[in-house]
Each structure stands twice: as C-alpha cells, then as structure tokens.
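Contributing: when you submit paired examples, paste them exactly as shown. First protein:
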Amino acid sequence: MGEHVGARPLEEGYVAIGWHELGDLRNYPDREAYKAAIAERIPDAKTGAQPVYAGILFRFTHEMQAGDIVVYPSKHDRMVNIGRLTGDATYLPNDDDEYPNRRGVEWLGHFPRNDFSQSALNEIGAFITLFLIKKHTSEFLAKIGLGADNVVMQPSEDTSDENTDDDTATVAVSQQAQLTTGDFVIRRIMAGLDGYEFEEFVAHILECMGYTARVTKRSGDGGVDVIAHKDRLGFEPPILKVQCKRKTDQVPRPEVDQLLGTLGEGEFGLFVTLGSFGRQSTDLERNRPKLRLIDGEQFVGLVLEHYRNLSPRYRSIIPLKQIFVPDLPKP
C-alpha cells in the first residue's frame, strides 16, 4: 500500500494508489463496498485497518475532484511536488509497477523540502496514503500563487478521523521520526556550513569511511572539490574525484558530465549533493561504472552511519542522539 514512488508520476503527469488486488477501484460505490472487498481479497489486512483503507480508496476514487490541488512528497528526490487534478480516476491493468489506479495531474511546481517549514513537512509526512491538508494549506498554495480557498489533497493519510490498529500507528510514528531527522540534518548543514565548508565535511565523511581525502583549492578546481584515495600518498588507484553541491534542488545533467570529463585512468567520479538528480543523470550512472551519485537522502544516511566518528565540530553543528524506533513491516 502507498503512493507511487519514483520519477514516472512526475514525468507522465499522474498520482497512483495501486491496490491491484481490488482491480478497478471505480467498481466500488462506497466505503462499505471497499471494506467488503478488502476483507475478501486481502485476507492479511487487519480488521482495525480496513476502515482506514476503505476511506483512502473512497477519497482517491470518488471524493477527489478535477481542479483540486494535490501535494506529492517524492522521497526519491526529497522534493515536494504540487499540481492540479485534471480528471476522474482511471485504471491501467497492465501497469508494470502494479499501481493501476491513477488520477491525472498537471504539475504546477516542484520544490525542495527545505523550502517548507518543518511543521508543514510533518503534516504531509504521515504514513498512510491520502488525506486532506488542514493546517498548512496556505503555505503550500502560496508556492504556486493560489489563495487558501482551494482543496489540497496529499498522498499521506490523516488518521484523526479514522480508527487504525496499533502497529499501523507505531510504524507511522517511526517513519515520521526518520523523515524529520533527515530534514533536520539537511537544514543544519545548510545553516551551519558554507559551500567550501560543505566540501570539507564531505572529505571528513570520506575519512570516516577509511579514505584519505583532501579538499582542492577554492577556485580553478575544474569541477573537482575533493580528491580521495585508499593509500596514504594517493599514488595507487582507485582515485576518487568528488564534486560537492550544497544545494537542495535538482542537479542538472551538464554538471555531472563536467565531473566525468575530469576522469583519467584509474579515477572514479563521486557527485555529492543535498538535493537530487534527474532521470538523465541516474541513467548515466547506471551506464558508467566509474560514476557514483549521492543525493541528499543517501548523504543523510552516511552522516547517521558515521555520526559516532564525526569530529566534535560537526556533531555540534548537527546535534543528534541515538534512539531506537520499532522496525515493523509496512502494513
């Protein structure tokens, strides 16, 4: 269960809800019909969660109307995408990703998560698939130049008016904690480090990973900000040439090409950003074994993985403490 993840909804103009086990969701007229179908066709669905799921499916198929504004936070690139629904629900039975139930969307804007308040991000970061944004409507609408009188739907579920089971609620809290931590880490880096200091931080992370790393001169680096290697002196391959971008929006393909153009024999390219990479760049990475792209979400993962070994300076900029959260499977 969940919204369609990845780049295809943005490129092809839709949001999708899946539920291929139920077939065409337009065949069910009300919430009771959805509940009965879930009980019959998805026997693993917990009884307490069935009303929540029925509410999601009814809202997606029947309640949402053309012209409504939809907010889709895409995890793969840490962007908040805002668009307008363009028509009724459709059904594509042969969808490769098993997300056959769709709503068409005209995307009006794509914004880094860092552009929004943490409170607004928390509202759209809930666990289940669909709900009506209530608290931060004006903040999202302002990004696309609209007033607060528009309906804003979001691919996550507000369970305040639904009963849900304990495991579902627990997973929701755990995932929200992880999302909030990622937002916090990136905000603190943006506020506490300038561009050159971010390059030094990336070099420090590489050193925590067992590399010897040095930052190049502030100018004339030819697209290379950090050079790293396993041997102490840097004579033995592989040599890593690293480009660092302290920004939260999408890195254009030409910047990745620039890094590739610097590589010689025995050299590998690593591009690190707090933002994301477009489809052209990720396709390039798949076809170039000497290229590795690290986006904001992955970089946060490296920070958390090596946090214990960070210098006191960086731990003071990004103050964190370890906690344990439940690791339950997604319902």
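Second protein:
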Amino acid sequence: MFTMDELTGSVGIVQPCDFEFGRVGEGVLLDNGQSFGPVTVRYETYGTLNREKSNAILVVHAFSGDAHAAGKYSPEDRYDGWWENMIGPGKGLDTRRYFIICSNVLGGCRGTTGPSSIDPSTGREYGMTFPVITIHDMVKVQKVLIDHLGIESLLCVVGGSMGGMQALEWAVEYPERVRSAAILASTARLTAQGIAFDAVGRSAIMSDPNWNGGDYYGKPVPARGLATARMVGHITYLSDESMRTKFGRRLRERETYAYDFDDLFEIESYLNHQGDKFVERFDANSYIYISKAMDYFDLGERFGGLVNAFSRTRAKFLVVSFTSDWLYPTYQSKEMVFALMKANKDVSFTEISCAYGHDSFLLETERQGKIISSFVDTVYEGR
C-alpha cells in the first residue's frame, strides 16, 4: 500500500535539521592551517536508514544549491527542492529503498556556517573575516555530519558540477567510507576559463559600492553586483542551442526596434530576472568564498597527478557528461575516466546528448535517472 506522496513520486513535507560541532577556534582544521569553529550544518534527509546503515546516499549540491534537495516545507510552498525530479519514490534516487542525505556546504548562506553567520567571538557577522575555504574543507565538514549520523560507509556520493568535485574529494580523501561515486557534469580541476568567469563575478560584487569590503549586513546589500555576477554565471549554465530555441533574437515587449536603450531582448529580460531572484536568496560574500574554493580545486595537485589521486580510491565510479555542456565539457570527464582506468579502478562513463548545457544534470533527469538508478542498484546488490 503506497501513500499519496509515494504515488505522486514526492518525498512530501520535509523538515530541515541543524547539527553543530566545535567551539571558537576549534572544530575543523582547514586547508589554510586554521582550526575553525563552531560550525553549524544545515541538512535534510529523505527515506529511511536501514538497520545495517548500508543504504545511505550523500547528495552534494552545486554552487548555488543548498540542503533542500527534495520535497516541500509546507503544503503552500511554491517551490520543490532543487533535485525534486531525481529524489523520491520510484525516481533515480528511490527513497523507498535508499536513505538520502543532503547538506548545505561550509561557506554557504542557507543554514550552514558562512560569511553571513554570527562570529561568536565578536557578536557580528563574519563578513570577510570568514576564513578562506576549499572544496576539501567542505567535505571535511560533511564527514563530521556523516559521523554524527552514525554512518560508517556511504553507498554512494552523488553530485553535479561543484557537487561532483565534492564527490571526487570524498572518494579520494575517505576511500574506506565510500562504496561508489557518481560524478555528473563535473571536472577534476577548474580550467583557466572557469577561473576567469568566477573572477568576473567576484569583481562585479566587489565593485558594487554597497559591498563595503564585505561589511554590508544590516545595510543596503550589493544587489546590482551580485545580480550581475549571477547573470554572467547563468550564461555558462546554458547552451547556444537552448538560448537560440527559447529566446532567439526576440524583443521583450516590441515587435520592431525603436533604436533606443529601452529595446530589451528576451534573453536580457530573462537574465535580469535570474539575477534579481538570486539576490533574494543568496549572500554576496558566500558567492565570493565559494567561487574561490572552486578556483582552488585541483584534485591531482595534492597527490602528484590524477592517477595517483585515484589510486587511493576503493569506490566504483560513474561519470556522466552532456554534449552541450561547454563549462565542463566532455573532454574533462574523459580525463577523469582515463585516469581512473590507468589506476585500474571500476569506472563507467556515458555522454548524454542534451541541449540544456551545463544545467543538463538538473534538467535532463529521465535518462540520467535511469543510469544512476541502475548504477546504485548494482553497487547495493553487490553485482
């Protein structure tokens, strides 16, 4: 007998949880050498952890994501979690079988400690006194959460984009804790192009007069700078084909050019809307810190190359790329696959033909869901 939520494929109404550890100057040892605490971690879970605690899957989010991966907070909630079409009964990550965990990353602004959090030693927001962090640091904090939940081994760590970077870190840093990893639309290191786009976004924020060196809490926020950063970033998530199909060269409210600066193409209006929406839910300083963490990411650097890094792992790997993703194109996924093969690791690879661009891992979930479901089931069943 299925509940109504199971029949509709939804996890239903969910409740976020907070876990706090550490104290001032003591909590997690960061890559910069600083011991940082206390740390609060916002997380959500879906499904039921079995008695053996062998069915736990950690979902790690992308740059602007958060812990709210599925379900709603109330029946009146207008928005589902960011991966609603992948997590739930009968979906790619089936909550009738698996226990799904998703947490907001360190440095975030959606419940986990970040620049907008209160520094207990001053009673004021950290702002730019928050320590510089890395993807590695984010995973260290997630590991403390998993320990808190009493889970010794994760069935799978799944992530797209920046989430894929975290999944890679998990497999390399804690090989005995990860049975499998699914890496979607991601890379083992950020390229010069990726760093360049991040630099433009940070520059837009820091050039906004309201940024005030990061000390804008309780004052006008650097809305224009953050919106511009989001607009630039959002372009990289799309593809030429998707923009051409959805927007073309159509004007927003006119049929012919007026030859003035009130002429607004539909793509301009769309980007403005995305930028304005982003300001409502994201902190500008978090944008600065998280983008810098991505810039630092180079999995092979710590170990003398990717093959050496992957030689540490014990997990089975699934690597998925998308034909229209020009931010992390397929050749970057293949670099990981070839390194895994050279390290004699179990790896499966697929490239999905899709026009959505980098956002394909969020939007093209029918084929992706079947691939991930089959992969996770195989690992769970020991096949």
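If you have annotations for the second protein, write them as plain sentences, like these:
Residues 266-281 form the longest helix (16 residues).
The domain at 4-190+298-380 is CATH 3.40.50.1820 (Rossmann fold).
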